[in-house]
């Protein structure tokens, strides 16, 4: 099988995490054509000799920004520089599981779709727990408008020419740039295929420092996105608008819970319940009083029923 895939990794001041990310690529059952690291204004510059990359088998490119310009700008640099037909994104604190590139490339070849996505293993480091995400099947633009159905950038690979055609990631967004990219892909008629196996692992560290900057960027980005797609949002049915409102409240509740704000999270889950009267939201509101660990265990128990 021709290896025609480039891995694009934006990084900023996470050298030790980046080394783990690179190591996960080198353990792949099918190595990529190239690895493109975009050093987005790191204090300690990323150098090629920091990684034990077999140059005869994988080409390594390191691009640099003197000052940080954000993940969107960095990813776009990588997309423009890439020579692979397909782009696999990897954040600098995430890791590919061993068969990621082999299975993704095989799916591209077999299906001919524009976008491949899959579940992820979420590791909550302080709680010593893990949870496997379950992205939606059969993605439509309406699905994406309602909420992020695919997940983060590390869970998604796409055809390079489709990403270039749409202008890459929106650099005006301080957050949710991956979500908005998936929306644009869906609106442009891109075809999606979901793999059932989790193929990436990422870490979540809970704590009081999580919320402030993260929530400000989240709220600001949501406003920009809804302004950009205001006509499409207004065309949603009443049921779809309620589903979108529920998704927003759930996302905000989760962010609050990660920061340790249990009361705020519980209230937001309850607000989401009032929108849709879904008993699972009522349970989430209750379990939020006991923190993120209780909520994760509740979700894991539900998935086994």
From TrEMBL:
GO terms for molecular function: transferase activity. The chain crosses the membrane at residues 281-298. It comes from the Bacteria. Signal peptide: none annotated. The keyword Transferase applies. The keyword Oxidoreductase does not apply. Residues 6-131 form the Glycosyltransferase 2-like domain. Gene3D superfamilies: Spore Coat Polysaccharide Biosynthesis Protein SpsA, Chain A. Keywords: Membrane, Transferase, Transmembrane, Transmembrane helix. This is Glycosyltransferase, GT2 family.
